[in-house]
Amino acid sequence: MSVATQRQGSSTDQASYNSCANPIQHRPRNYVSYPGSSYILPSDEDEQARLALQHRVLVRALGDRLVVAPITLTPGNHVLDCGTGSGIWLLDLASKVSPDVQLQGIDIEPRLFPTTRPENMQLQVGTATKLPEEWSNKFSLINQRLLIAALKSIEWPVVLKEIHRCLAEGGWVQLLEAKRWGAEGPHSVKHRQLLELLFSSRQLLIDCSVQLPKMLGEAAFQNVHVEEYRLPAGKWAGQEGIDVRDNFINVFRGMKTPILNAGGLGYVNSEEEYDQWMDDMAQEWDETEGTTVDICVCYAQKVPVEA
Ligand SMILES: C[S@@+](CC[C@H](N)C(=O)[O-])C[C@H]1O[C@@H](n2cnc3c(N)ncnc32)[C@H](O)[C@@H]1O
């Protein structure tokens, strides 16, 4: 029996992970256990720290902006953060807007929710695929950041329709996703191949960033805009590059359990081998000037349907 199956307490989707005949023994982290979720990243203290670093990296990349969509939040507005994680985007926003702007977060996993939060910030457990009925036409802005490793291909259109339903007329959705990452060296190229296999085995949409503009149109959004940003990754780019490297290599380290529980998917045979691979990939980024992680921000508006 694998270490993963022996472990007590929460475990994500262990049934599907353990359906593999030959899971590879390793020390697993905590994962979410929301029914039907394909989410492949952990939910623990290390992930909380990573999300804090990631937030700093992303906000810096966007020129110190939390909101890219063309909206000025005013008292009485409601804002939703879908898949809020540790709520760090909302907490940051709370420090920059009027306390009379109402801030709401939702996530399938409450473990990372902050223990203290401002009075105008509420958090609840739930899925982006089925937002509460009473949220129809409520929000001026809905933010959703990095659900690439969470939403299945068939869920993306559902989530965008739900977001559209919950936006007030004239309101904006803002979606940030990773587009491309890593060097052209052997460690990075092989890892991208592994991720394509992992994502497709769990019906996740690895190229969601490319498909978002079209999907937004199909979900009745208008005024669709796309902005792309290249984040330098690796020591060659100084502290900024080290932060980007650490964040994204740690994303990949976090995918170790789903990969090993799936028997390594033909790419890896032991925990040690995977750990070494991540070290080698980090070094490859350090030594390959020009390595980047590319992200894209799509924002779009719900406009009144003409009679
Ligand atoms: C990579 S984390 C990003 C967290 C946050 N958006 C941020 O940028 O800091 C993805 C989050 O999405 C959540 N998640 C996964 N599937 C979800 C779903 N169907 N509905 C809502 N949240 C989901 C996970 O629990 C996790 O907290």
Counted up, domains total: 1
Which small compounds were modeled alongside the protein?
S-adenosylmethionine
Total E-strand runs: 7
How would you name the oligomeric state of the polypeptide chains in this document?
single chain
What is the alpha-carbon Rg in Å? 19 Å
Helix content: 25-40%
How many alpha or pi helices? 10
CATH topology: Rossmann fold
GO molecular function: methyltransferase activity
Domain Methyltransferase: 79-171
Keywords: Methyltransferase, Transferase
Organism: Gloeophyllum trabeum (strain ATCC 11539 / FP-39264 / Madison 617)
Summary, kept brief:
The chain is of the alpha/beta class. The protein is built from 10 helices and 7 strands.
Structural write-up:
- It contains 10 helices and 7 strands.
- With 307 residues, the protein is α/β, with parallel strands linked by helices.
- The chain has one domain: Rossmann fold (3-Layer(aba) Sandwich).
- The protein has a 7-stranded mixed sheet, sandwiched between helices.
- The longest helix is centred in the first third of the chain and has 17 residues, at 45-61.
- It is globular.
- It starts with a helix and ends in a 6-residue tail after the last strand.
- The relative contact order is 0.16.
- Residues 32, 37, 39, 41, 51, 55, 82-85, 88-89, 106-109, 127-129, 145-147, 150 line the site of S-adenosylmethionine.
Strand-helix topology:
Layout: H1 3-6, H2 14-17, H3 45-61, E1 78-82, H4 88-94, E2 102-107, E3 121-125, E4 139-145, H5 155-166, E5 167-182, H6 186-201, H7 208-218, E6 222-232, H8 238-254, H9 256-261, H10 271-287, E7 292-301
Parallel strand pairs: 1-2, 1-4, 2-3, 4-5
Antiparallel strand pairs: 5-7, 6-7
Helix pairs in contact: 3-8, 8-10
The structure holds S-adenosylmethionine.
The site of S-adenosylmethionine has 23 residues, from helix 3, helix 4 and strand 2.
Biased composition (Polar residues): 1-22
Domain Methyltransferase: 79-171
InterPro entries: Methyltransf_25, SAM-dependent_MTases_sf
